[in-house]
Amino acid sequence: MSDELKKCREQIDSIDDQMLKLVSERARLAHEIGMLKNGGPIYRPEREAQVLRRLLSQNDGPLPEASVTAIFRTVMSHCRALEKELAVAFLGPLGTYSEEAANKQFGGVSSPVQCASFDEVFRTVEAGQADYAVVPVENSTEGAVGRTLDLLVQTSLKICGEVELPVHHNLLSKSDLSSIRKIYSHAQSLGQCHEWLNRNMSGIERIAVASNAEATRLAAEEPGTAAVASKRAGELFGLNLLAEHIEDDPRNTTRFLILSNHDVAPSGKDKTSLVMATRNVPGAVVQLLSPLAENGVSMTKLESRPLYTGMWEYVFFVDIEGHRDDEKVAKALAELEARAAFVKILGSYPVAVV
């Protein structure tokens, strides 16, 4: 070993020693704060968002932003676990993108609660069998996840956070590429890889299943089949990587919501989601939305969805910038509620951090 290499390693050892002392001190203080909360929520997404934004503003590299947030999310997660290991419900089994989103948001230290459907994810948290839920709400390629929107209208849960997860699909199998006769995946994933599959797997049967992880399980059991799923799902079921990053749009991203039984305080950069309905009269939607413009509130999303109670009746899902406690947002919402036939505030929460 050269003297220069030895010197660098000694410096790393010294830095590691300092990091351990500092992380331990941080954990002690976090535990003390937990004791002072007197039973308040252990997970404070607004506070964690503020911490991450502050750190990113000071990051001069060489680590990219995603690495910085991943490191500090893990630290914060281990500190939270000194009070309680949070139970997080998501669409299972292990290996789904929902699990990946949960690990990203909660730093990987939580008790995973695997559910068989979106309905079960919601029910599990509503019944107090899990602390938080992670559900997909929209994809940059395929659009809204309809069942999630339907359940948001009905649930008592509140949105307390969001996660944006870059989604990279892969073709996985135990068989050779030439022997594949059937491909399993979730319907959304098949849609996101539609053109690649047309070019490279033309004529091969595509079968939609409940989740990408379920697709990998089936592909692991049936010779001559493949799955479109994440690399992690393939590793869990012992599948080989036949082709990677087969999504048609390299910017393919899915947005997930974090749901809980508690509200979230302002973080300084927030979003508010609501669902509403209007009376069936000419110009009703324009009139309904005008309080936003009149109060200088920016709308970032407007999505219509058929109402399950009757034909040709619709509700509108809206995202706006700001927290419901912000003065101009509160004023706009009050005016909107006076005009709408139905309004439900789904939650105010921090805008997703990298």
UniProtKB/TrEMBL annotation:
What Enzyme Commission number does this protein have? Answer: 4.2.1.51, 5.4.99.5
Name the keywords, alphabetized. Answer: Amino-acid biosynthesis, Aromatic amino acid biosynthesis, Cytoplasm, Isomerase, Lyase, Multifunctional enzyme, Phenylalanine biosynthesis
Q: Name one GO biological process term.
A: chorismate metabolic process
- List the CDD domains hit by this protein, alphabetically: ACT_CM-PDT (cd04905), PBP2_PDT_1 (cd13630)
Catalytically driven reaction(s): prephenate + H(+) = 3-phenylpyruvate + CO2 + H2O; chorismate = prephenate
Residues at the site labelled Essential for prephenate dehydratase activity: 254
Pathway of action:
Metabolic intermediate biosynthesis; prephenate biosynthesis; prephenate from chorismate: step 1/1; Amino-acid biosynthesis; L-phenylalanine biosynthesis; phenylpyruvate from prephenate: step 1/1
Give GO MF terms, alphabetically.
chorismate mutase activity; prephenate dehydratase activity
Q: What is its main location?
A: cytoplasm
One GO term of the cellular component aspect? cytoplasm
Instruction: Specify the superkingdom.
Output: Bacteria
Task: Cite the Prephenate dehydratase domain residue spans from the record.
Answer: 87-261
**Keyword Ribonucleoprotein tagged:** no
Where the record annotates domain ACT, the positions are 273-350
Query: What range(s) does the Chorismate mutase domain occupy?
Result: 1-87
The record's subcellular location field reads: Cytoplasm
User: Function, please?
Assistant: Catalyzes the Claisen rearrangement of chorismate to prephenate and the decarboxylation/dehydration of prephenate to phenylpyruvate.
Full protein name: Bifunctional chorismate mutase/prephenate dehydratase
Organism annotation: Novimethylophilus kurashikiensis
